[in-house]
Amino acid sequence: MKSRYGNGSALARTAATIGLAAALSASLQGCFLALAGAAGGTALVATDRRTVGSQTEDREIQVKALSELSNKLPNTSHINVAVFNQRVLLTGEVPDDATKQKAEALTRAVTNVDSVVNELAVQPASSFSSRANDSYLEGRVKGELVAYKDISANDFKVVSERGTVYLMGLVTPQEGNVAANATAGVVGVQQVVKVYQYIKPGQPAGASAVAAVSAPAQPAANVADEPTVGAVPDASVSSRPIDGSSAAPAAAPAGNGKAL
Length: 260
Fold this sequence. Notes:
By secondary structure, this protein is α/β, with parallel strands linked by helices. Helices cover 28% and strands 20% of the residues.
């Protein structure tokens, strides 16, 4: 079973990681599965809005989901698993719709999974160069988010798949829009999809703080009208694409400018 990071290890998605994954591929039987988003915040850090217990639980969900998918799906599948606050995002490619639905069912059955956003594409597995580009984009986006003084990059998990960047996190609607617009301005990003769980401004951190804010944030001016809908309808998910090819880097709202 081929893995971008290899059997659940939380390694940063950098060029070095890509090289390591390639070296391991011969012994991993050709099914492309990965734990996505290590660079996007799965490390246990004090600034994460999730509780330490929730962070630990997320890592356990990743490992268990990867094991299930690795053992029970065709070896032509390439699936990345990202988890934030017990919400699982599945991205990648599968050979048919039956495999896509099976992947979701297997993931839902993992202990402590609250919801699954199934963004798997029914198409041939992506190329090595495409995955390398995705790793590069994740680093670029994370660096862009760090530059904004009134949002914390540690509040966001960044996952890139075939040039589409998914943003996860416990954030306020304003924070979510700032991050999405910043991401849309990164060269090479084709689309931005928000997979946030919203909290109210000033709401306490932790898993229990997930949005009572049930309505999605109002989209920014450059957000397309038609949402990219995940497999799980959820009012706290705003899965709206932003056309990164046409969107200029948006100016941050007052109080959210880049750090000097």
